[in-house]
Write a structure and sequence with these properties.
The protein is mainly alpha-helical. The protein is built from six helices and no strands. 49% of the residues lie in helices and 0% in strands. The relative contact order is 0.05. InterPro entries: EF-hand-dom_pair, EF_Hand_1_Ca_BS, EF_hand_dom.
Length: 160
């Protein structure tokens, strides 16, 4: 009889462990703050803006501008603008003669081809060619905020 009891308890422990493992990313409802009273919600709703602020293109463009403006004087000089290009050119100009020969320019492509050509046949199969594709970063997904509801009915039953 004790074998059945121990087996049942072990089964329950395994089921509980499975639930914990599969739900480890789910947020606990107990961790959420309590909702304020309805009277406080009505006052807070009046103070909230109608739209959510978003980053504008000017903000992104300002960040890009600031990356180029190394001396932070509010202007991007020709030297500041070309500095990044010079670094890339210097990496490719292996003999440092100030000119870029085709072989120097193609060295990165040659290396990429050699890595992709796994069987060293001098030609790439479709599977090998797929390895040369540019690796793009996946779009950043924000999981810390629940999706915003588009059309919500007013809380007090009145038309807005």
């Amino acid at each position: 009889m004790w074998r059945y009891l121990v087996g049942g308890l072990a089964t329950l422990a395994l089921v509980a462990a499975g639930i914990l493992v599969f739900n480890r990313n789910a947020r606990s409802v107990a961790a959420l703050p309590l909702a304020p009273p309805a009277s406080a919600q009505a006052g807070a709703a009046a103070a909230l803006p109608d739209s959510v602020p978003e980053a504008s293109d000017a903000t992104r463009e300002q960040k890009r501008f600031d990356r180029y403006d190394k001396d932070r004087d509010g202007t991007v000089t020709r030297e500041e603008y070309l500095a990044a290009r010079r670094k890339a050119f210097a990496k490719l100009d292996v003999n440092h003669d100030g000119t870029l020969a085709f072989d120097e320019w193609a060295v990165k492509a040659e290396g990429k081809f050699a890595l992709a050509d796994a069987d060293k046949s001098g030609a790439m199969t479709p599977v090998e060619f797929a390895k040369t594709a540019v690796k793009r970063k996946p779009p950043r997904v924000r999981r810390d905020c629940p999706p915003a509801a588009k059309d919500e009915a007013p809380a007090n039953g009145e038309d807005s």
